[in-house]
Write a structure and sequence with these properties.
By secondary structure, the protein is mainly α. It has 18 helices and no strands. The longest helix has about 50 residues, at about 160-205.
């Protein structure tokens, strides 16, 4: 039986592969730094990016190392219920194409929260932007922590050192090159991520006794292929709740979250934006299934060769353990790089969008006298550096969670669920008010904390609960005479 204490060797070849990749990211940032002369270029790449490039970047930015490591871990530990997400993403795409992005294009916005300001007023814009900042800072902590964990497992580097390394590299090249550097590096990272997942799946089929049929038979016997759980429990994942949760969460991620909106607004026109959304949905459909297959493949492999896996190894660490111990040098370095690619693409988009929101939704509206654009560009770069450092600090807090997807969902549900409720209240009814939403939000956030830490329901319930409570109470409060006011109130 392998043990966690046995020496771990990250070969010189693997180290070279990883070092070349990280240096290349910094080089791209330095290249684009020379071209960033305005905030329009730094934030939106002058709105002239090709749609396919935008599509790859959008997918890479939200398919973080949390997804890349978390989906296989979930299939390995529980089941493949998250396969339903691949179907739900196809259902959300028409909503994005017909409702959200035609509106954003018509308004010519830089941030999605400009719409909230137009619909509910200045204070609502500040509130939604503030919740976005809190959500994405927590999210950034998870996307730094997950690959740092992988690096720590496969190299023996202390976790805190790995966290600092990941945070520093991503922050530096984003501060240098802005959104253009983010997008073009994301294209390379997209290719590495997809190729890495395909390679992993193929090796598992080759190495597991009886290949594909052996994997499926072992997973079926252990209940890992369960998708539609007939019983709905507050303490277990079920297919029905996966569908409900991710329909709303993907609507938030792709329809209202500045991380995605900012990328899609860099496309040349609405047609390009729509193509990027459809490309993302189709890619999501295939890659989610592939990552879940990797999870059950590792389960079958280690059931066949149990002595190769340490006892009590956490599920999130099984993937990097398999990569470094089952695959040859060079190849294992490339696949660990794929995890880094997933992290870097998310980290760069996160701190870039946070910088955009702070400058565009707080600093500029609160100024009494307009400032030169060059000054805002300098502020944006400094914000990226500061936010990167802060997100790296949050990663140390995230390390206290048992599961990276659980950590991600805990944070996103608290802050992003209420934001989606505000957008849909504004889009679906003219009677909704900011005061009514604020009342619903004030109840939803502590109630969500209660079900997380006191009732301890499964994390799959966090987001729909926070969204639903905010929406329903916000709507009810808006319809009472105590909170009724004009839509711009």
């Amino acid at each position: 039986m392998a043990t966690l204490e046995e020496p771990i060797s990250f070969s010189a070849l693997n180290s070279v592969v990883l070092a070349v990749y990280l240096c290349a990211l910094l080089a791209v940032g330095a290249w684009f730094a020379r071209r960033q002369k305005s905030t329009e270029e730094f934030f939106l790449a002058s709105r002239r990016m090709p749609w396919l490039v935008v599509a790859m970047s959008m997918y890479a930015s939200l398919t973080s190392a949390v997804t890349y490591m978390g989906l296989p871990a979930t299939a390995y530990q529980e089941n493949v219920s998250l396969l339903i997400v691949s179907i739900v993403t196809l259902l959300v795409a028409p909503v994005l194409v017909t409702v959200f992005y035609p509106l954003y294009r018509r308004l010519g916005i830089t941030t999605s929260y400009e719409y909230i300001g137009n619909r509910f007023g200045r204070h609502a814009r500040f509130a939604a932007s503030g919740l976005f900042i809190l959500a994405r800072l927590g999210w950034l902590g998870t996307v730094v922590y997950a690959p740092a964990l992988a690096l720590s497992v496969v190299t023996g580097i202390p976790l805190w050192t790995a966290i600092l390394l990941m945070g520093a590299v991503a922050t530096l090249y984003t501060a240098l090159g802005g959104i253009a550097a983010d997008i073009w590096t994301d294209v390379v990272q997209f290719i590495i991520m997809v190729a890495g997942a395909i390679w992993l799946a193929v090796t598992l089929i080759q190495r597991t006794p009886d290949g594909l049929s052996g994997i499926l038979q072992t997973a079926e016997a252990a209940g890992r292929l369960a998708v539609f759980e007939p019983r709905i429990s507050l303490f277990r994942m079920s297919g029905f709740m996966v569908a409900v949760t991710f329909f709303f969460q993907l609507m938030q991620d792709y329809g209202t979250d500045q991380t995605t909106v900012q990328r899609l607004m860099t496309a040349r026109d609405l047609r390009g934006t729509n193509r990027a959304i459809i490309f993302n949905a189709v890619t999501d459909f295939f890659l989610i299934g592939l990552l879940l297959f990797i999870g059950i493949g590792m389960y079958a492999y280690y059931q066949a060769f149990p002595t190769l896996l340490p006892e009590n190894l956490p599920g999130d660490r099984v993937l990097p353990w398999y990569i470094i111990h089952a695959l040859p040098d060079g190849i294992s370095g490339l696949l660990i790089t794929a995890i880094f690619a997933a992290a870097m693409s998310s980290m760069d988009s996160g701190i870039s969008s946070l910088s955009t929101v702070i400058v565009h939704d707080f600093i500029r509206p609160l100024r009494s006298v307009p400032a030169p654009d060059a000054q805002d560009l300098r502020i944006a770069r400094r914000l990226v550096l500061g936010l990167g450092a802060l997100a790296t600090g949050v990663a140390f807090y995230i390390s206290s969670f048992r599961h990276v997807i659980e950590a991600y969902t805990t944070i996103i549900s608290l802050f992003s669920g209420p934001v989606l409720a505000l957008f849909l209240l504004g889009l679906l009814t003219r009677h909704a008010t900011f005061t009514g939403w604020a009342f619903g939000c004030a109840i939803a956030i502590p109630a969500t904390l209660f079900i997380q830490y006191v009732v301890k329901v499964h994390w799959i319930y966090y987001f729909p609960f926070a969204f639903g409570v905010t929406f329903l109470i916000g709507l009810a409060a808006s319809l009472t005479s105590l909170t009724r006011q004009s839509p711009a109130g």
